[in-house]
Write a structure and sequence with these properties.
The chain is an alpha+beta fold. The chain folds into two domains: 8-104, no CATH class; 109-169, 2-Layer Sandwich (CRO Repressor), CATH 3.30.240. Helices cover 58% and strands 11% of the residues. It contains eight helices and four strands; from the N terminus they run αααααββααββα. The longest helix is centred in the middle third of the chain and has 24 residues, at 73-96. The N and C termini lie far apart (79 Å).
């Protein structure tokens, strides 16, 4: 067999209906979006090893459902185009329609209010006292009592607001 003997037409010909690929991609895109948005709501500004492993395994598990028996490059391009379309449309619609933005992005969550830990909110996001205190120390604040608010932002980062009286005294 010659190394230049391959089926170029087979590489680019569709092996599965483009409509089927679009439907599979759409269904799995929305399923994964819901899983990642509502079940794995957010992490404290970082991606842990178990989170990374989960995303890799999730992608591998979703691949067979999305691609089915498709084998050509063109099949893959149709599927990738579908996923890119939904990602772009979600961003576009979130920007232009506030109701959709509230659905797609997590709202900020108060973790500290007037120097007191909001344990109910912390439990909801599995955030420990030490994680909050570490963030406060990173911001140069030594005492939790001097903190007006700490919010867990939509992107998983924490923002710290110090009491104005404490800033003036410093």
């Amino acid at each position: 067999m010659n190394i230049f003997d391959f089926d170029l037409a087979g590489i680019f010909s569709l092996t599965v209906s483009p409509l089927e690929l679009i439907l599979r991609g759409t269904l799995l895109y929305w399923f994964l979006f819901i899983v990642l948005r509502f079940i794995l709501r957010r992490d404290v500004g970082s991606l842990g090893v178990s989170d990374f492993l989960f995303v890799v395994i999730l992608g591998d598990a979703a691949q067979n459902g999305m691609i089915g028996s498709a084998t050509s490059v063109t099949d893959g391009m149709v599927l990738i185009g579908t996923l890119v379309f939904w990602s772009y449309m979600l961003d576009f619609m979130s920007f232009h329609v506030p109701v959709i933005q509230r659905f797609t992005a997590a709202q900020r969550l108060c973790l500290v209010r007037d120097g007191k830990l909001q344990r109910r909110n912390m439990r909801r996001e599995f955030i420990t006292d030490e994680e909050v205190k570490a963030k406060i120390r990173q911001e140069g604040v030594e005492d939790l009592a001097t903190v007006k608010r700490v919010y867990l932002e939509a992107d998983g980062e924490m923002s710290v607001i110090v009491n104005d009286e404490v800033k003036a005294a410093a």
